[in-house]
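Hey Z.,

So I finally got round to the protoporphyrin IX containing FE thing we talked about over coffee. Here's the setup:
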Amino acid sequence: MIREAVRLYKGKARLVRSAVRGDPVSRVLNLPRGQAGYDRYEDVRAAGDLVRGPSGLYMTASHALCGKVLRSPEFGAVPTTVSKRTLRPVGGSGRLVHPLDDSFASVDPPEHGRLRKIVAPAFTPQAMRAQEEFVTGVVEEELDRLAGASTADLIGEFAVRVPSRVICEMLGMPVADHELFVRWGIEFGAIVDGARTPGEVRRTRKLLTEMASYFSDLCDRRAADPGEDLVSRMVRATEAGEMTREGLVATCEALLIGGFVTTANIIGNAVVGLFDEPEQHQRFLADPAGLAATLVEETLRLDAPAQYSVRIVRTPTTLAGQDLAAGSPIVTLLAGANRDPEVFADPHRLDLGRHNPHDHLSFAAGIHYCIGASLARLEGRIALAALFARYPDLRIAGRVRYCPSRVIRGPQYLPVRT
Ligand code: HEM
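And the result:
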């Protein structure tokens, strides 16, 4: 444990030293949690299309290069930087599972496609059309709850509740455990880019222990009493030998967390974005239903809920004129690519008249393109249209607090007056 702590502190100290010296890659990696990284992404862009940090990690904010890395089979998925120690359960033996490292999110072809196919039927356009009515009903119910409250936290009282109720319904999970899931979402957001101190290692192990135990029990219950939900479908696939038990638990976790944390951020980021741009706010209020889909895309572009993703070089290759060794990690700054002036005019502004907001990379690209993208778009569109139609006088009523994460970008607390 002491050796591990020394290793973590040495790594952290090296990072801080090179960040202080002005290395743009280290400055992004050393970003205080919860702080916007957009200025630092611009420093990476100014340093070149592909920038190498002192540890050998590459980073790009170029839209073209991010797209190329995400789409090319030369670059593979990579587990997050969770150490082996983190994956030992608290007070037990064996190994914990991690929602991203152990689900299909971190697997390369052909395994990736085989596993993704098990859950893909729940996210087809037809399946999404079938969800529309349910989502609308949930949104209206949640807006009713806001009525009469002079001030409310728009995130806790609305933005998180809508997608978490929807994903609970899809997975066949008890919505009564909602508070627990919200806490997991916040804690996971804070450690998703790796544990860097002994305290973070401890918190990660505790969180993974708790989630694994919850989902293990849930899967056992579904095995004994199956339904038509997504967890039951995955349990059947596991019984048929198509998925490991570890993969099953990890995929349940990934769908739950992925299913509401980032989606809630579309709503929070859109509201903050509109209040930052009074002209666009007025424009939106004139036609919330007609402009909601555009607001969702433009918000995804301007404030990517998942700010970056990571790939690893599979075989030695040349990229942007640099020779990369196998095993080199590359951080694709999705949020930086979304503000690339080569692709987006006046990129730092929210503009509902933009001709190409869909060209953002907020759902990544290639084989790992977000499986829940259509669901997130559907929820964001319905929620934002209904929120502003019902409460056109909505106002921000205090200081906005952001999610304490480097990867996940969105308000965690957004006080509003309806
Ligand atoms: C605004 C909402 C969302 C954003 C911004 C988002 C973002 C992303 C991104 C960037 C990736 C690719 C990660 C990588 O390539 O390393 C991804 C993959 C994934 N997302 Fe989402 N996501 C959102 C909503 C959802 C929802 C609603 C679900 C599930 C219900 C979900 C489940 C997943 C899963 C399972 C993957 C892994 C896909 C694969 O590896 O094939 N996400 N998401």
